[in-house]
Amino acid sequence: MLLGDSLLYGLGSHTGWSLLGFLCKVSGNPETCILRSAESFYKRGRTTLVIAKFIPGVNTMAAPLAGSMKMPFGQFLGLDLAGASFYALAYGGIGFLFRAFVTAITRGFRVAGRVTEIVVILALIAFIAHRVWLYSKHRVYRVVPRVQVMELAQKLQSEESRKILLVDVRSHGYYDSGAERIRGSVRIEPNNLSQEIKELPKDKDIYLYCT
Question: Which residue segment(s) compose the domain that 114 sits in?
């Protein structure tokens, strides 16, 4: 686990959001993939690495996020070691305490081998169907209309600027109250979008920017 996480940390520190973007493209819910992990860092701080192994999604994103946030490698390694040890001891302990139960289940699987094969195949089909459903449900988020920086800069210098509103939606961990923003932009909370969107003007073209 340490070797794999160290590799992801190194890739995250060198590639930044390129790696994070790739990992989220293959996730079931790409529009909240990075946000959920960054929010965990924001709420729990660096101790997220200690519990990340137990949280689906965050376990994959935690190491590259730590790298992209420029966390010192020594600090990352110490926290990741604590998390990996906690994870291994927890599941190893469960296996030790319930070894008789696990042995009985394994023996039952051997006896009912054919039934087990069918159950596993059906479970695999159900899992694939679920992933396809998730992919189709969130496919709208995979094609986001974009505008080039120079094109928007020209619009802001023209008479069109009165019809334009810039909105900062950076995730936690990459934004705090002292962070610099593009001049004239407003900040809205990514985790409270449904409420904050209602307060945005309806007579302007709204351009969002994140990290």
Answer: 98-140
